[in-house]
Amino acid sequence: MTDPSASHAAANSLSVPVRFGWGIGSLSMSLMFNATSLLMLRYLVDFVGLGAALAGLLIGVAKVYDAVTDPLMGTISDRTRSRLGRRRPYLLTGALVSALSFVLIFHLAHFQGASYVVPLVVIALLLNATGYTIFNVPYMAMPAEMTSNYHERTSLMSYRIASIAGGQLFASVIGPMLLVAYGTGVSGHAGMSWILGGVIFAGGGLCFWMTRGAPFAAQSKSVVPMGLAAQFKTAWENRPFMLLLGIKLTHLLGLAVFISVLPFLFIRVMQVPIDYLGYFFVAQGSLMMVSQPAWVWVSRHLGKKGTYLISAGIYSLAGLSWLLVAQGEPAALILARGFVAGLGAGGLLLVGQSMLPDTMEHDYQLSGERREGILSGVYTTVEKVSFALGPAFTGLLLGAAGYIQSADASVAQPEAARLVMYLCASVIPIGSLWIGCLLLLGYDLTEQRLKAGAGK
User: Fold this and answer.
1) Taking a C-beta distance cutoff of 8 angstroms, is the pair 89, 216 a contact?
2) What does the pLDDT look like over 114-154, one tens digit per residue?
3) Which terminus of the chain is more exposed, N or C, with fewer CB under 10 A?
């Protein structure tokens, strides 16, 4: 391994500009991820005119495609040789494709009723998935190269979590505000997409520029090309990584269901305006941001496993409270629920993300090869599978329960459809989270174990 800018093995802290610069890349992907997860299913159903089951199925197909391409992108970035490093050259391209495809998605209602609207939806979704992959797979492989310090990775990830919260705020607070400002309906979604699309590209560009001085590692020997099966075999041999994948899959599957159903719950059950979503997400995002120093401290003293379990308990309180919502929910209760959820989510995301580079370092100790891109590709594949199944599952449940598609928020829904909304907002995501917590009990990649492996 060679390192053009600094020794990868150095345990010294990264500079604040480098930490901030890498972290800001998550704002772009979080913004796009949350905006599409939150708004796209209802947009495709109520404004583009697709059936709920069909819309969920198409989103799922695009995510499956995205999942298949992630390991390929990981191998490409592992094999890249550039004075900019193996990962950074892809940040700009990924940000541009992501931004343009995001704008296209929220202009699809202009083609409602056209014979080619379904193929056009598929093309837009596949382009968006491709942009996300090009950016996110190399991006997620960078921390393992930037520092080998166990706690420094947690600190670095706190910048990412803060940016994830910022992206969530843009998507769920600014997004609905822009919808209202531009006219709520078709024109509102179109106007919103141009503003948020610009932020997506700007965040990716800033990440590329500010990480120009970040340490990166080059492969000391040629990387043998690996097929999809071989890449998953590589991951399978790393037990802590496989447990982390299980934790990731169960948590994000529940989260995908929750985010997909939330606009329906607000509009059809609580019967509050769409921009009320902003109350919840501004509270959640704010607590995610400001809680990061506290969660870093807790992780140093109680360990990553203990921190994750505490966070899951806090998050579950907010999640189960969705069972109690009713028509005309007061804004104060929405805010309170958001604050509690944000506190728990801050710890869950920080620990989950900081364990990934630990498992990459463990892989290097086992193999002697820098295969961060391969593992990052497999890791993000699980993320895409979760967010393929989540909207598809939600759409199928709503369709089976007799959901009535309409842009008119006053249209009464069957009781079965309302019950699906309650379950998808509370019981299903919290149950999925605690299945992941059971898997966490077997995770044993501690700081001491990594240090012992490094000394061999």
Assistant:
1) no
2) 889 999 999 999 999 999 999 998 998 888 788 777 778 78
3) C
